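User: quick one, sequence for these tokens?
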């Protein structure tokens, strides 16, 4: 005999331990009836009422979340150990006395009267859920923290509300609200499901779209056979597993980290994952958003949960008013230069302070996007009226009364006044000028009117790496980069491919002409952004200045599509990484804001937009 336990919103830890102990003592190969019941529950019941999954044993999945209130006992006539059966029944009775609802089924009921059996289960589930809703309301008690004490940070509140269980001396099993999939990191994940004969557990929580391999000059075809295969495979996998798919060239497509927030698929309070480093972008709406590996993508597809070690927390405060010409991109580059690219390793960062509160939603998305570049697992910003105004009436946002209720809940998502962080730092906005990078990591940066550090200014232990970076970039210690000729200019990526970025670029180039020596790629982050550009007449400003508006794509952020910078050429780019070969084998990359890139595209050299 095995047990299927059904998880609901709340139950005491004592009940949870009782059921978990019971399930642990009942690990054994399921009977045919149990396999059939499990199959039908997965296909016809799960995803409607159930929140969480935990796999116990190698053969049977038991829903034993802390909210487990219903146990299904499958009792077969062919049990090989009568004494064990009696012991199991005694234990099940003990669960029942402790407040669980127990449904006892026979093999015959499951095998030969499956639909009636499912209806019976659903009836119990509905009754149980109604009772819980009446007595507890809609708010999970885990919002007050796992130990029931506060004060809590924003990260803690969201994390605690999504805990399925805490593995003793191990990671946390975390429920995931949204999984984003693109074409590069998912093929092996879907193959894993096929190998194990597993369906996607909650396909409605998964959204997929190609972006890395998508060309920006035309989208009728992909000439690269590897890229074409990845995009085609994603489409086939989505069709087979019933996943929402925004295909290349359709109005819903774009860079996944641009499309998610702009469609309100990413909402405050969510846990969000994707097999991509820059998933931290979505944290700007007030969510925990993390990049994960391919094996973890498979884990989420199969269970809608993930095993994660809880990171430490850090709050980065930026206070004051940003100077003229300084943007959210400059703020992020400044923080990385101060903290280094490993300064937030092992932390989840919350951005706070008056400067952040005064940022637009697009600026916040840029700031959160670059969190990973200093090692952070996530970059959150507490939702406020700016967030709500941005999300309201978007395609997948709650509507009507549901919107009002959602906003009331979202307003609770902030760090308590006395919340304690493992680390906290504060920077002054007035100290931040427009910035550029000089090396091969985003933290190797300076204010645009400063010089590259001299060798004497670099710690002795870091000098070899410093010289190696400069050799690749063809720069010298102490060199001033302002005025250095550039070959390519790129506006786009999940960092700066939104409408505000194109408005900023257009404000600089309006009435001017692109330098003849510059190749410029202006690539919107989505089809919606592209349409906004056209509706606002920005495309005409760009065209008159000698620029071409291209099609949505990751484009020159990385060398996985035709927009590659040739070896030795210098690109000034709004993207997020300046690693060796990132924009093409041998390509050299300076990271900068849309204003700096626009000014440089006009003059043909690295240019301070304040001086143009």
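Assistant:
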């Amino acid at each position: 005999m095995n047990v299927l336990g059904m998880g609901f919103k709340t139950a005491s830890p004592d009940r949870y331990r009782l059921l978990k102990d019971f399930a642990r003592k009942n690990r054994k190969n399921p009977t045919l009836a149990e396999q059939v019941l499990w199959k039908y529950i997965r296909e016809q019941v799960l995803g409607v009422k159930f929140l969480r999954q935990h796999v116990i044993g190698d053969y049977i999945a038991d829903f034993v979340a802390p909210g487990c209130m219903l146990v299904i006992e499958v009792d077969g006539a062919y049990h090989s150990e009568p004494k064990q059966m009696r012991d199991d029944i005694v234990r099940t009775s003990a669960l029942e006395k402790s407040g669980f609802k127990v449904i006892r089924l026979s093999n015959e009921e499951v095998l030969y009267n499956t639909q009636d059996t499912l209806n019976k289960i659903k009836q119990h589930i509905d009754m149980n859920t109604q009772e819980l809703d009446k007595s507890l309301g809609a708010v999970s008690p885990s919002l007050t923290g796992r130990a029931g004490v506060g004060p809590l940070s924003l990260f803690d509140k969201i994390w605690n509300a999504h805990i399925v269980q805490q593995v003793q001396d191990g990671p946390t099993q975390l429920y995931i609200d949204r999984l984003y999939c693109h074409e590069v990191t998912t093929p092996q994940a879907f193959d894993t499901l096929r190998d194990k004969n597993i369906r996607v557990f909650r396909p409605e929580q998964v959204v997929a779209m190609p972006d890395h391999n998508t060309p920006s000059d035309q989208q009728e075809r992909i000439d690269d056979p590897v890229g074409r295969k990845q995009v085609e495979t994603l489409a086939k996998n989505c069709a087979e597993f019933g996943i929402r798919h925004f295909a290349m060239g359709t109005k819903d497509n774009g860079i996944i980290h641009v499309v998610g927030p702009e469609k309100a698929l990413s909402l405050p309070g969510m846990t969000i994952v994707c097999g991509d480093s820059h998933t931290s972008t979505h944290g700007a709406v007030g969510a925990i958003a993390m990049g994960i590996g391919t094996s973890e993508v498979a884990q989420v597809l199969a269970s809608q949960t993930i095993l994660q070690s809880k990171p430490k927390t850090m709050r980065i405060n930026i206070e004051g008013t940003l100077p003229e010409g300084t943007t959210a991109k400059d703020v992020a580059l400044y923080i990385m230069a101060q903290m280094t690219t490993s300064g937030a390793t092992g932390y989840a960062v919350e951005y706070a302070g008056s400067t952040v509160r005064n940022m637009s939603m697009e600026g916040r998305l840029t700031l959160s996007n670059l969190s990973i570049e200093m090692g952070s697992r996530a970059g959150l910003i507490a939702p406020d009226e700016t967030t709500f105004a941005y999300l309201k009436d978007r395609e997948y946002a709650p509507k009507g009364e549901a919107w009002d209720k959602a906003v009331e809940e979202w307003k609770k998502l902030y760090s308590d006044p006395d919340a304690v962080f493992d680390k906290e730092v504060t920077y002054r906005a007035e100290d931040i000028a427009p910035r550029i990078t000089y090396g091969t990591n985003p933290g190797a940066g300076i204010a645009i009117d400063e010089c590259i550090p001299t060798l004497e200014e670099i710690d002795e232990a870091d000098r070899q790496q410093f010289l190696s970076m400069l050799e690749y970039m063809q720069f010298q210690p102490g060199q001033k980069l302002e005025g250095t000729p550039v070959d390519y200019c790129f506006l786009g990526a999940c960092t700066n491919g939104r409408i505000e970025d194109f408005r900023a670029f257009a404000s600089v180039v309006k009435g001017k002409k692109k330098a003849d020596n510059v190749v410029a790629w202006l690539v919107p982050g989505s089809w919606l952004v592209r349409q906004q550009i056209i509706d606002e007449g920005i495309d005409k400003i760009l065209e008159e200045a000698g620029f071409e508006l291209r099609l949505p794509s990751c484009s020159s952020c990385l060398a996985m599509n035709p927009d590659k910078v040739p070896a030795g050429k210098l690109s000034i780019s709004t993207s997020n990484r300046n690693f060796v070969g990132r924009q093409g084998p041998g390509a050299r990359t300076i990271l900068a804001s849309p204003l700096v890139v626009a000014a440089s595209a006009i003059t043909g050299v690295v240019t301070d937009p304040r001086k143009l």
